[in-house]
Amino acid sequence: MGQLKSLQIGDKAPNWSADSNQGYISLEDCLGQNAVLLLFYPADWSNVCSDELPLLEELINLSGDIHLKTFGVSSDSTASHNAFARQIGLRRIALIADHQHAIGRAYGLIDSSGYTKRASVLLDPQGIVRWLRIEEDLNQPRPLNELEKALQLVRGWAGLPATIENMQDERRRAMQLPRTAPLAPPNQLQLQFWGTRGSIPVSGASHSRYGGNTSCVSLTSDTGHLFVFDCGSGARELGNFLLSPDWNPPRSADGSGKNINGYMLISHTHWDHIQGFPFFVPIYQPGNQFNILGGSSCAQTLSAILAGQMQQCYFPVGMDLLPSRLAFYSVNYGEANLDGAKLTSRALFHPIPSTAYRLELGGKVIVYATDHEPSNLPHPEPGVLMGEDVVDMQLVELARNADVMIYDSQYSIKQLVEKKGWGHNSAEVGVDTAIRAGVKRLMLFHHDPAHDDDTLDNLLEIARRRAASFKEADLEVIAAKDGLSLEFTVAPAYSA
Question: What is the mean pLDDT of residues 130-135?
Fold first, then answer.
């Protein structure tokens, strides 16, 4: 293949065959039934490529049932591609080993210094170039909104609505687990706390009553609903529960109900919220399926970050070897309907943005709002609600009339002053937020690892005294602890 001066829209793309991390691939064999998207990039392991490729794969995965083969192209070896794809969690994008830049030269995409340009080339099923973009700055990632234009073309070829609005609506619907039959409305709900600690797990006699596992909470129903809030070290105990006879949801007629299917709602990707994922045993069993949701403000996607902590230098089993089916979705701070439950999400103020979730199921409302700090330091006075300069009013609206709000209460007021910018809150701010929102029950959560049982008892008493200072308020305040379970009976109107 010779050097082309420039590839143009409407040109017939040069054919090629090459090794990849997914085997030997020929362009000619991919065409006919499929469009082909070629993502040329300079090299494995660079910061831009490590962050960019997982985001591109997530966008492609969320674009519907389109006939599209996607390849990353660089001059790295297949051994490098194998390790790189595993590190960043790539599954759908195969990485082509373009030895000696043969493909890059044929497409006119080698710059004067000998590097592969950062370029995107879309070929229709006949191999004709229909969309082309070359980034001027090699060190800048491709804009996702530009790639969406290419995906709109492919959707049109597949007979799907090609507007951005249709794509976004389909992504919301894709978050719903595929089921042979919808889950029945619940009669009973169970909210269980598997890990209530923040920052790092702790143990010892002084932490025995509240426990030491990091963040993990589940909401289940008697008809098979399963929602998991965060996957800290408490996820290990949750996984054991789901595999035990104690978790016995109704079985479907085709037997698929024997599998464990549910949703993981990740607030953010600090270690204390994901470190239990490699020890969550249900992901090691074929047939189980989890849709994993979280905010998309980080440079890397959830899949890439979870895969990263399972690299061989940290953990013996890579995420690419898991036999369960895992799907990842960006919540984008909107609404979704999952198994009849309405999920609403909002961003919270944290060193990396954290996501708060409102889950409405069976007429009950659970709000999970961990890891955030007030905009300004609080100065609580008995019987006087803190103002909007302290209380997050968007969270107040999210938690409106909730039955339960699980709230980041890691620090005392004194500690908030000492640790401004660390991303955590206090029980007193939680009380004022809950009263403003009309919450029925406030769960103090994300306990500091330095706080022993007696300290948490004291912080709970301070919060209860503050709640009692508002005579008209009817707020129950509880300090969450590992193993705590709350039961809810659904009103007949919601279970019929």
Answer: 94
Q: Which two tokens stand for residue 116?
A: 């592969």
Q: Are 129 and 11 in contact (CB under 8 A)?
A: yes
What residue spans of 89-233 are helical by DSSP H? 102-106, 144-157, 164-174
Question: What is the bridge-based pairing of β-strands 119-123 and 404-408?
Answer: unpaired
- What count of Cα atoms within 13 Å lies in the side-chain half-sphere of residue 487? 4
Q: Are 373 and 349 in contact (CB under 8 A)?
A: yes
| Per-residue pLDDT tens digits for 272-286 | 999 999 999 999 999
Is the pLDDT at 104 greater than 90? The verdict is yes
pLDDT at 252 over 80: no
CA angle 364, 470, 418 (to 5 degrees): 90
Q: Using an 8 Å Cβ cutoff, are 89 and 301 in contact?
A: yes
**Model-level pTM?**
0.75
CA distance 275 to 282: 15
8 Å CB contact between 341 and 315: no
Residue 2 has pLDDT above 50, yes or no: no
> What CA dihedral angle connects 243, 245, 251 and 254, to 10 degrees?
60
Q: How far apart are CA 290 and CA 175, in angstroms?
A: 10
| CB 398, CB 344: distance < 8 Å | yes
∠ at Cα 167 (12, 355), nearest 5°? 125
The backbone region for 384, taken as left when phi is positive above 0, alpha when psi lies in -120 to 50, beta otherwise, is beta
Give the other-Cβ count within 10 Å of 245's Cβ. 5
**Short-list 427, 408, 409, 411, CA closest to 466:** 427
Q: Give the list of residues 6+ apart from residue 123 with CB closer than 8 angstroms, or none.
A: 13, 31, 35, 36, 37, 38, 129, 130
Over the Cα atoms of the chain, what is R_g?
Answer: 25
121 token code pair? 């080339």
Please list, in sequence order, all residues whose beta carbon lies within 8 angstroms of the beta carbon of residue 492, skipping any fewer than 6 positions away: none
Instruction: Annotate 275-290 with b (16+ C-beta within 10 A) or e (fewer).
Output: bbbbbbebbeeeebbb
- Secondary structure letter of residue 486 according to DSSP: E
CA-to-CA dists, residue 405 to 86, 396, 477, angstroms? 38, 10, 10
Q: What is the pLDDT of residues 398-418, one digit of tens each?
A: 999 999 999 999 999 999 989
**Residue pair 193/446 in contact by the 8 Å Cβ criterion:** no
